[in-house]
Amino acid sequence: MSKEEAVLEIDLNLITSFTITNPIDKISISKNGTIWEIVDNDTLNIKQRSIDMFFDKVLTVKKETLISKSKEKWGIYSVHDTNATHLSLFDNKNNILADFYIGQSKSNYANSYIRINDDQNVYLTSENIFYYINPNLNYWGENSSADSLMQNEM
Predict the structure, then answer these.
(1) What span, in angstroms and rounded, lies between the C-alpha atoms of 61 and 57?
(2) DSSP structure class, residue 14
(3) Which residues in 70-83 are b (16+ Cβ under 10 Å) and which e?
(4) What is the per-residue pLDDT for 146?
(5) Rounded to an integer, what distance in angstroms lies between the CA atom of residue 36 and that of residue 87?
(6) Residue 107 neighbours by CB under 8 Å, 6+ apart
(7) Taking a C-beta distance cutoff of 8 angstroms, is the pair 101, 79 a contact?
(8) What are phi and psi for residue 41, nearest 5 degrees?
(9) pLDDT tens digits, one per residue of 60-99
């Protein structure tokens, strides 16, 4: 049996922005006062459910089993710089609070693989968080209801 340990050991209230990057796409999300916004996008409003799931699932995920201690196996677990989804968390001074590489298993859909930036070790997570770290604009944002109404009337 494996011992579960929190991946993140920081105060979640310190997080004021984050960036998600995969080999195809990138998105940055920042907190402006109490409102989360997609950086460099003034047409979409943030989906609160996406933010809630990010904080509830991704930022509270546990690392379960140590899968590999070898840098040479990063590619196999999709946690290499070139094939992983990279998540960076920042504070209000734009200092990096945490940096992770997340990979999706090709056979185990219940968990993800995770590597912390300065660590060679790859861990299996307590649950699959891959869906919640999608850098696609449509996952994080939606047109405001006023915009939707105007488009429907046209």
Answers:
(1) 6
(2) G
(3) eeeebebbbbbeee
(4) 52
(5) 17
(6) none
(7) yes
(8) -145, 115
(9) 999 999 999 999 999 999 999 999 999 999 999 999 999 9
